[in-house]
Amino acid sequence: MKAIAIANQKGGCGKTTTTINLGAALAKNGKRVIVIDLDPQAHASFALRKDDRSLDISAYNVLTEKPEKKRSFESCIVHISPGFDILPSNAQLSTLEQELITREDAVSVLRKALSSCHSYDYTLIDCPPSLGFLTFNALRAADWVIIPIDMSPFTLVGVGKLLGMIDLVEKKTGRAPQVSALATLFDKRTKYSQSILDEIGSFFGDGLFQTVIRHNVALKRAVSEGTSVISFDPTSNGARDHMMLADEIMRCEQYVPVSKQNESESGNDAKEVTFIIEAPEASEIYLVGEFNDWVADEGSRLQHAENGFWEKRMELPPGTYRYKFLVDGEWSIDHRNQNVESNEFGSFDSIIRI
To answer: Could you count the other beta carbons within 10 Å of the beta carbon of residue 169?
Structure first.
């Protein structure tokens, strides 16, 4: 199961919209998906409501340690559509931090709860618009963090704090989630939106999804109907964009550096590893890492394959290696490999284990 946290302390950037519609799009592609509504405001629960009744059970009942309130994960799930469920929220979730304040593992209660949940392909965690206790729990549980970023003047203000919190998670746990940015509320009719998109691209580089979520009234209308845009209007731009996002995520999931045993006559136990990066606009790309002393030379240059992909094959003996791509002079982690670790320069390296 892949746990994906959708997080940004900035309000109005499309966190909940992304969560519910990405979930519906993944389910449309035959994946088993559950949304964890970790926002006490319960916007995701409202947006996917079956009716107007308030929910008495929520994620709080799964995460609490109070015997009289504790419920099993399965008993709190609400079924939305085939392959698509939600663990809803309510205001009581806001009391959880004070309740668990004395527990040493308080920031890991969500991760612990998800460890027994094996029936889903994807868990999407809708975070509150803050960098507090609940968001830290989501980052601790996540394999991947998606940061929705809208086209507003202060769109990147505070993103550094979120990235700093992710780095703190890695320092405390030795485990860092993959991080990607998603451009939302994009209006292609304005030069201003394009300028903000360019700014986001400069900040995140290859960490920005190719998919852009356009401003679309169907997204708001779907919420008012208590359903996803995938169900409300599958031909709308909002539905198409989220289906494209789901496809991009699934393609990333299908990729890990491919290795196979080298059966050469020498009898060594080296493996042939194939590294791939999608960069259609790049002029030259090098693969550098601990296996070649971080040297970008002719021997580490990638070959340009079809459809904007670049490829490099190497034979590596067993071991653990840090590596990166050097794309037209700019460093980039391997965004198709979720295994990353922070380095002494304050950034991240991709990790491969043979």
So the answer is: 20
The mean pLDDT value of the chain amounts to 88
- Confidence (pLDDT) at 261: 52
Amino acid at 219: L
Question: How many angstroms separate the Cα of 242 from the Cα of each of 18, 26, 67, 123?
Answer: 8, 9, 40, 16
Structure letter (DSSP) for residue 40: T
**Cβ atoms of 146 and 19 closer than 8 Å:** no
Where are the domain boundaries for CATH 2.60.40.10 in the chain?
258-353
Q: Torsion over CA of 230, 232, 233 and 239, rounded to 10 degrees?
A: -30
Looking at the predicted structure, is the pLDDT value of residue 169 above 90? no
Q: Do you know the residue count of the chain?
A: 354
Determine contact, residues 123/117, Cβ cutoff 8 Å.
yes
Superfamily for domain range 2-254: P-loop containing nucleotide triphosphate hydrolases (3.40.50.300)
pLDDT attached to residue 128:
95
Give per-residue pLDDT as tens, 338-349: 678 888 777 888
Residues 6+ positions from 346 with CB-CB distance below 8 Å: 167
CB 285 within 8 A of CB 242: no
Q: What is the Cα–Cα distance from 40 to 181, expressed in whole angstroms?
A: 24
**Amino acid, res. 306:** E
Residue ranges in 132-262 assigned as alpha helix (H): 133-141, 159-173, 191-204, 217-224, 229-232, 237-254
Residue 135 has pLDDT above 70, yes or no: yes
Q: What is the CATH number that goes with domain 258-353?
A: 2.60.40.10
The pTM assigned to this predicted structure is 0.73
Report the greatest alpha carbon distance in the chain.
70
Across 208-225, b (16+ Cβ under 10 Å) vs e yields bbebbbbbbebbeebbee
Return phi, psi of residue 258, to 5°: -80, 130
Backbone angles phi, psi at 250, to 5 degrees: -65, -35
Q: Contact 30/250 with Cβ under 8 angstroms?
A: no
Relative to beta strand 33-37, strand 122-126 is parallel
